[in-house]
Design goal:
Layout lengths: L5 H13 L5 H24 L4 H12 L2 H34 L17 H29 L5 H32 L7 H28 L1
Length: about 220
């Protein structure tokens, strides 16, 4: 059973955790690592002859205050959030590029008249958007993995990746709505319906990662 002295460690970790924002899994890992470090320090002080209470007080004091520790922990959370967002963008971009044309293959209207020039331009812009997203996602992985990275570059890449879900949702919805207006069968074409559902899930997945990154760098 945890004694009163152990509560000093838990209280310090709780106060630190309240100041941190970012991916919950990484945050939990960082606090667990900090707990192990504190308890190791307590044990070392006890072996050195200090009482249990004094060992806890000494370890917590040398650990530092939440205000002192939060910036370093928060920086690591921001890097982790960028890494997670980058990989998600890469995954969704790769899936969109690979499966985009499959939505239309075999459709009853695919051999009909060509769509308006504006429609073709919008469709091409979506292709370019996901290509840019893949490149930016790869850059984000590199930036997050670098031992020393520029905070300015981190924020620029992260901001671009955070905005992409909104741009993708906007252009994708516009293309879907235009498609329904051009072809009556679009709403009953199974690949179109499945694609719309999967794209929606993908954007929600990206949106959560983008929100986590925004909170981590605020």
């Amino acid at each position: 059973m945890r004694g009163g002295d152990d509560l000093l460690v838990e209280e310090r970790l709780r106060a630190l955790g309240e100041q941190l924002r970012g991916p919950s899994g990484l945050k939990a890992d960082l606090l667990t690592e900090a707990r192990h470090g504190l308890l190791d320090a307590v044990e070392a002080y006890r072996e050195g002859g200090l009482s249990t209470a004094e060992a806890h007080r000494r370890a917590v004091a040398e650990f530092g205050t939440p205000a002192q520790l939060a910036p370093a922990y928060q920086a690591e959370l921001a890097v982790g959030a960028l890494r997670g967002l980058s990989w998600r963008v890469l995954a969704v971009a790769a899936a969109s590029i690979a499966a985009g044309d499959l939505t239309w293959r075999g459709a009853s209207w695919s051999d009909g008249p060509r769509p308006p020039a504006g429609y073709l331009l919008l469709a091409a812009s979506i292709d370019w958007l996901w290509l840019f997203a893949a490149v930016l996602g790869g850059l984000g992985v590199l930036v997050a993995g670098a031992s020393r990275h520029s905070p300015v570059l981190h924020r620029l890449v992260g901001a671009g990746l955070a905005v992409l879900p909104a741009l993708g949702a906007l252009t994708g919805s516009a293309l879907f709505g235009w498609s329904v207006g051009l072809w009556d069968g679009a709403l009953t074409w199974p690949p179109m319906i499945i694609g719309a559902v999967l794209v929606g899930v993908g954007f929600l997945w990206l949106g959560r990662a983008a929100r986590s990154w925004v909170h981590a760098v605020r």
